[in-house]
Amino acid sequence: MQLPVNKCHGYARAVPKPEVDSTASLELGVDRSSPVPLYFQLSQQLEAAIERGALTPGSLLGNEIELAARLGLSRPTVRQAIQSLVDKGLLVRRRGVGTQVVHSQVKRPLELSSLYDDLEAAGQRPATEVLANVLEPAPAQVAAALQIAEGAQVHRIERLRLTHGEPMAHLCNYLPTGLFDLDSGQLAATGLYRMMRAAGITLHSARQSIGARAATAEEGERLDEPPGAPLLTMQRTTFDDTGRAVEYGTHTYRPSRYSFEFQLLVRG
Amino acid sequence: MQLPVNKCHGYARAVPKPEVDSTASLELGVDRSSPVPLYFQLSQQLEAAIERGALTPGSLLGNEIELAARLGLSRPTVRQAIQSLVDKGLLVRRRGVGTQVVHSQVKRPLELSSLYDDLEAAGQRPATEVLANVLEPAPAQVAAALQIAEGAQVHRIERLRLTHGEPMAHLCNYLPTGLFDLDSGQLAATGLYRMMRAAGITLHSARQSIGARAATAEEGERLDEPPGAPLLTMQRTTFDDTGRAVEYGTHTYRPSRYSFEFQLLVRG
DNA sequence: ATAGTCAGGTTGTCCGGACAAAGGATTGAC
DNA sequence: GTCAATCCTTTGTCCGGACAACCTGACTAT
């Protein structure tokens, strides 16, 4: 498989093993005075190198020992950097072989993302129309999802998301009171998740359900679809890192203009 | 928060700090003669304890140093065990505070799972009807997804999945030739992913797209739905750890009988 | 009473080393 | 020439220790 390359390895260390260490030509280095962890610096540099194509898919990374020595780091630190990229699905390790850049196109392993951010990343310049922003007693289903008493006061936010002037999704969200103030102006200008993060809430996990159903007359009118037209639906409950439910949403999408696309990894 | 449970266990080890170490009353231990890694043994035991409720949500885990000493392990090993559970979303670490069991209900963070396994786990006893299992030239879209030449031979498998005697989903899958033999009998008795794993293929990642559309007359007849009824659709390309595309599938589901439910974590 | 300071406890990061396990390639025997 | 045994390389696991960063609660000074 490997041609017998003319290995004239005297001391003239003219590229010792060029075909088995793609990091040799990379300029890697860490800043020990920086507060950002060394393993993180390294993993970011490697990820950037993969991103811009300096590390091509399938190329070997060179063994950890040598890499550590070259960077003046310990092997555990280098391993931690590599491991984080393995967890992201960018690298694959094989005992006895080495670490190589994964072959396929891995974009993003499905983050807990907001529709607004998704659209903005796609260059769609989304517009938002706030249809409602009120306080009201929680219906039974909402109270159950948010783990609060039925009838307790909750915020109800209804929004219409448009792209290119056309409606794309109808978003109905319920939030517990007292988390942060819900300014309608901000709601129109940015996404809900961004507002929550800005308010110091660290999102942890979400439970989602994606389905489909026929549009009611009211739904059809909102989204500019005929009654009975297929709609893509999503319900989601979001939790912060203390386990509190911080948001429950019911969304409907026009399937001609939106679909859920994501990448997922097998969990080791 | 935690009542001081009266644990009369043996020689008066009168629970040093009962409210700050919920693992104290657990019987944890590792088998050093086992080939399974120590950190994995520990993480499994902790996960099982969480699963069965021995470790209640919000309870502290006790500091790593002491836990390591109690088990006769080193701190890095204990950390590795805990870290794997943090990655799964079962635990939350806070510097200066400790490690605690996450409060919310985290079931499964969206694995790369097969419909068959999902149904079986739900106790549905799925049935499969193999409608087609043939070799044919790859259409353009399939060839692009599988990264092979257009017109190259591929397997086409069409199946109908039923629960309680009613059709639930129509599955159309394309596979490259030469991976493994596709026995129709096995296809009817188990899932495609299980067959692939059994054939030594290690799945790595998949790219999915979930949408909705109205049923055509043919689709409606297959799934016992009227034409124009809303259907839930999913396309998926699966890759193995070498980056090869090993499967491309187009599935349609009856939304009244199936929806995608999953949990997702914010990636740190 | 309030605010700032300090100390204790816990996780985060990093180091250096050691041996085991697995895969590939070479070598040897037949 | 083919197959098996062996060696080498590389990652996997594990250890023990050290210091830094951070949070909490108590204490002190205002």
Structure description:
Chain A is of the alpha+beta class and 268 residues long. Chain A has two domains: 5-101, Arc Repressor Mutant, subunit A, CATH 1.10.10; 106-261, Chorismate lyase-like (Chorismate lyase, 3-Layer(aba) Sandwich). Chain A has eight helices and nine strands. The first copy, chain A, has helices at 38-51, 64-71, 75-88, 115-121, 140-146, 184-189, 192-198, 217-223, and strands spanning 91-94, 98-101, 127-137, 153-163, 166-176, 203-214, 230-240, 245-253, 260-265. In chain A, the strands form two sheets. A six-stranded antiparallel β-sheet of chain A has the order 3-4-5-8-7-6. Chain A binds a DNA duplex (30 and 30 nucleotides) through α3. Chains A, B: Pfam families: GntR, UTRA. Chains A, B: It comes from Streptomyces griseoaurantiacus M045. Chains A, B: Residues 36-104 form the HTH gntR-type domain. Chains A, B: Keywords: DNA-binding, Transcription, Transcription regulation.
Strand order, biggest sheet of chain A?
Answer: 3-4-5-8-7-6
User: What's the helical proportion of residues of chain A?
Assistant: 25-40%
Write down how many β-strands of chain A occur, each being a DSSP E stretch of 2 or more residues: 9
CATH H level of the largest domain in chain A: which superfamily? Chorismate lyase-like
CATH C-level category of the largest domain in chain A: Alpha Beta
Radius of gyration of chain A: 25 Å
Q: What is the ordering of alpha helices and beta strands of chain A? A: HHHEEHEHEEHHEHEEE
Largest interface: A-B, 50 and 50 residues
Give the count of helical stretches of chain A. 8
CATH topology heading of the largest domain in chain A: Chorismate lyase
